[in-house]
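thought: fold this chain, then report.
action: predict
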Amino acid sequence: MSSSERQQQFERAIKALPGIRPDARIAANFGFSNSARVLEGGLFACTNNLETYSEKIVKGTGAPLKQMVLLCVLTFPPHDEVYFAISVGADIERLNTGLTKLFHEGEARNAALVAAAKKPGSISNNVKFYITDTGHLYFHNFDFKESLKEVQAKGELDPDCLARIDSIHFAIWPPAASARRSLLARSFVGYLGDLIGREKVHELKVWDEAGSVSAEMRRMPASIPIADLEASVKALGGHYPGGEVRRFHAALNFLQHKHFVILAGLSGTGKTQLALKYARAVHGLKSMKEIDPFLFVCPVRPEWTDPTGLTGYFDVLSNRYMVPPFLEAVLLATAHRDSPVIVVLDEMNLARVEYYFSDVLSAVETSETLQLHSSGVPLEGSTGTTVPAVLPLPENLFIIGTINIDETTNSVSDKVLDRAMVIDMSAVDLTGFFAELETRDPALKDARAACEPRLVAAQALMNPHNLGFGYRVAEEVVRYHAFATATLSQDADATVDELMVQKVLVKLRGAEKQRAMLTGLQKAIPLPRSEAYLARLLNDLDEFGSFQATR
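observation:
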């Protein structure tokens, strides 16, 4: 849709509002050079050419305005636009008086110019309009003002050129941006509310949101053939040869009213990546670099002890309800019922899950509503959207959690596990992963050949002791090797030896039961640094009865 079409549609929507008079003057001001600008102490709305309006009133050839509506726009790069309409009706007499005064002042200036044998200037055709922080429309026909606060401080704000604003109606383009609207655009809407009063600022549904969301984003995962999803996940770089995609898909979709899966297991095996790639596959995206407006990643914080990290809270300083990503996802899923909205709670057991997740967990299980606040009216959210007091979890919301089991995490109670499908992701297929990695990036061929035998051997010895490593470590080892040998001209075997110490053997810890693992690694990695490193661990085991690589 072209900009002119958007402007015409917005103008038609304004004219159709019940409060707009048939004889209202609708003044459109949409050019880029006429874009609104935020100022200190207010807002520059537009410059409007009122043609011969003032002259007609003075000479009695025209009727005074009954209502005036200024159509304006503010652009936020790269593509968000806020269209807004400023309406003045109750205080229209003052507006008529002020514009007439501008005309007389212009005549006086022209007379002075003629007396000085100079060319006359414009009288009051081009009038600049501002919104003040007192809720007024301020207008003049002099130079542009950079700061309304400065004008007020100097006493230059002419009281005859102030008319109280009745309302502002706005619409944001593109409508799909309601999925992840620009925070700047939404903040600007909040700023308008601060200037004239939030009760006077109203959103218009001008454009069809559903029409701006692709058809592929308006389909539920259960309707997509699993073969298509597996192919898409693989094309996005996923390596899940053990049927993980199928199990994940079934676990997430077998119930219509509840979609909650936990991916557990070894760090670096692609738990989070499975969720991200699956979401993009469902939404029809072909690249990991494309922005997915219906995907939200919520990193869990260790200090979370209550639901506010997910469901938000009212901030008394800003007088707004703070909307974290999880709540934003719920609001989005509520607005777009035919699109699957996927939320990833990353590292969800860094905090006690039962503490911060209890309210959401209860809503997931019982289909009851989330209690967000106790206000009788919806509150303005920090993202610009309104936040109701209670909110049900919509059926198109898909929640995926990832958990690791190590010394930095908390155990997950049966209460949580019973309400989710838990999929273990600890199985690692290094050989198959390396083959796919080389296919995607042939430049890694030599590095793979040098690293793969050592890594596969180390994985086979370490994994039975729950000390194995995942695809993340394996890929980083290979890429480091390729970089070091090419850029630093390092010896291939010496680089492998260096990497085994820096990236793989640092995970080792244990007691007598792990002695065989250490001796096996010495034989599998007969490289100087690695052998010395393992010998130190064996000495610790002999002397202290236990060992830990990172002590």
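thought: worth noting. The two ends are 63 Å apart (CA to CA).
final: tokens above.
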